[in-house]
Amino acid sequence: MSTQTLPPPHKKTAHAWRDRALMLGLLGLVVVGLIGAAAATGWDETLAQVRKLSLWQVAALLGLSLANYLLRGFRWHLFARHLGLAVGLSASFRHFLGGFAMTVTPARLGELVRMRWIKRETGWAIDRTAPLVLVDRASDLAAMAILMGAALASSSATISGGPFVTALALTAAFVATRPRLLASVANWGHRATGKAPRAFARIRRAARSLAPFAKGGAMFAGSVLALIGWLAEGVAFYLLLAWIGADVSLSTAIAIFLFSTLAGGLTGAPGGVGGAEAAMIALLSLEGIPLAMSVPATAIIRLTTLWFAIAIGLVVFPIAERKSLKVSHGLENA
């Protein structure tokens, strides 16, 4: 019987502390940057913008973000069922929302905890469920790229790099959902580097298991759900700007929000922290929005999107962990 070599406990602890230190460092830099920008414009002006928001307006922002998460959670369920996983809707939402707790890990790799929960509850190996991660990310990229392209086309704003980021996102989504193409990329990468044979072998196995998503319309349906979800958050950003008095069109607000989110992700930083905020403030400034408005708007929209998702994940995570262990023990004793 084959055994899997696990890293020593002290190495796992060291990695966990390294990830936490990296996240705290990035968050600290963002907070310092936002405080510095606010101080440069005057605290009174910045706080005045925050005070313009009522409780119902904050609730509306959170509600639009929640709509995004629920639509994408339902998409996760559709993808899981299309793959052949016998999981209920509540389990799918538990896995998807609980994974948000790990969004702040480098490159969001911690969200792979969803695969662990599925393995415990269904017995499916991670290699078999890996396509879920690929199509989930690809669906998001496709939806965001299409939405941002449409927003850029109808906006008078000029976002340098916008068309490039849009094209890059669409290309990544296309490759990630084409089994043969993804396998060819893995073969090319292995030959070109001559390293990490196991990693490239996993990619090839994942590519083969993507076959169910190459037909049946699951990818299209999932991308439509994602498009509506991301549109909700883009509208939330537009409403926020309007409520604090910033004169920005709906298409421009959506383009800025999506570009900043994608650009932050390209930095590889956990949750895009740092890069997304810097891009958002810079693009709003190019639209003539003063720092006294752009800084609080950026802080608020990130709190009601990224950090709201993480808060939900932190609540659901222990529930998902306990439930998966309970189901796993039940399967073992059956």
UniProtKB/TrEMBL annotation:
InterPro entries noted in UniProt: L-PG_synthase/AglD (IPR022791)
UniProtKB keywords: Cell membrane, Membrane, Transmembrane, Transmembrane helix
Bilayer topology term: Multi-pass membrane protein
Cell compartment(s), UniProt: Cell membrane
Keyword Acyltransferase appears in the UniProt entry: no
GO cellular component, one term: plasma membrane
Pfam assignment, any one: LPG_synthase_TM
PANTHER family in UniProt: UPF0104 MEMBRANE PROTEIN MJ1595
NCBIfam families hit by this protein: flippase-like domain
Protein name, as recorded: Integral membrane protein
Species for this entry: Celeribacter marinus
